[in-house]
Design goal:
heterodimer; A: 109 residues; mainly beta; seven-stranded mixed sheet; 11 strands; 0% helix; B: 117 residues; four-stranded antiparallel sheet; 52% strand
């Protein structure tokens, strides 16, 4: 099975900071990667799919890049509403399997 | 606008079968473009994919759940369901239904299921 490893697991940052979260796959997955944001008590929602395509309605301060085994999610200027947990998800095994990274919790410094 | 809504008992006894239903509006579960699936999240932990079903009835499930999973469709009600047998306290989680596509996932709001001894 394909494993995803996110780093860091915890990130403390300030409003206005630029932050980057990394997701590494145990084998190549082309661009079959999505990023989800989850706020406390809420369901996740997709931010980015196909590694770099912004979901409709998601602010342009979010961006994704990467292919193969290494991917990044970047928030260019943190806003108060961005403090949440972020998960990467691989879909190269769709529909027979999908896996998630362990999550990155982004907290206010 | 697509909406998915989970329903079912919030409390299940250990060793029994957990049964949940997802009602879909804004799309048809007979669409050939997507699979309809379940994902869960134990309290304070990460996300685990459970399984999915296609409009044809073909299913896939996570091997880690050791064949305890059944996902099925009810096309007359535009619903799909999850059954998880022989539950233990480790199955206590928020359960999300989802529309799964080849590049992305659309989530329901989730339902908390607690397994009691």
């Amino acid at each position: 099975d394909i494993q995803l490893t996110q780093s860091p697991s915890f990130l403390s940052a300030s409003v206005g900071d630029r932050v980057t979260i990394t997701c590494r796959a145990s084998q190549g997955i082309s661009n079959y990667l999505a990023w989800h944001q989850q706020k406390p008590g809420k369901a996740p929602k997709v931010l980015i799919y196909a590694a770099s395509t912004l979901q409709s309605g998601v602010p342009s301060r979010f961006s994704g890049s990467g292919s193969g085994t290494e991917f990044t999610l970047t928030i260019s200027s943190l806003q108060p509403e961005d403090f949440a947990t972020y998960y990467c998800q691989q879909l190269s095994s769709y529909p027979s399997m999908c896996t998630f990274g362990q999550g990155t919790k982004l907290e206010i410094k | 606008q697509l909406q998915l809504h989970e329903s079912g008992p919030g409390l299940v006894k250990s060793s029994e079968t957990l049964s949940l239903t997802c009602t879909v509006s804004g799309d048809s579960i007979t669409s050939s473009a997507y699979h309809w699936g379940w994902i869960r999240q134990p309290p304070g932990k990460g996300l685990e994919w459970i399984g999915n079903v296609y409009y044809s009835g073909t299913t896939h499930d996570n091997p880690s759940l050791k064949s305890r999973v059944t996902v099925s469709l009810d096309t007359s009600k535009n619903q799909f369901s999850l059954k998880l047998s022989s539950v233990t306290a480790a199955d206590t989680a928020m359960y999300y239904c989802a529309r799964q596509g080849p590049v992305t996932t659309y989530w329901g709001q989730g339902i908390l299921v607690t397994v009691s001894s």
